[in-house]
Amino acid sequence: MATTASKVRIVALIASIAVIVILILQNTEEVSTKILFATVSMPRAVLLLATGGIGFLAGLLVRGGRRKRPG
Fold first, then answer.
1. Which distant-in-sequence residues (6+ apart) come within 8 Å of 26 by Cβ?
2. CA-CA distance, 57 to 59, in Å (whole number)?
3. Which class for 31: exposed (0-12), middle (13-18), buried (19 or more C-beta within 10 A)?
4. pLDDT for 59
5. Which residues in the chain show pLDDT less than 70?
6. Angstrom distance (rounded) from CA 46 to CA 39
7. What pTM does this model have?
8. Domain total for the chain?
9. Is 37 among the domain residues?
10. Residue by residue, what is the 3-state secondary structure of 17-59?
């Protein structure tokens, strides 16, 4: 039987996936972005996902691998 915390995590995961899918569907137009010295054209959704992924990875690096110890 699933605990309340795991049910909340599942609901949060499903809600996050739904928001991501909506963002992708609403942002399909091409945009030009300057990255250093190059100009790159890509769908806005790809740009949003890439910047979100970079932010997520930066958060993991800042966290520094620290985890809660059980007990």
1. none
2. 5
3. middle
4. 87
5. 1-2, 65-71
6. 15
7. 0.59
8. 1
9. yes
10. HHHHHHHHHHCCCEEEEEECCEEEEEEHHHHHHHHHHHHHHHH
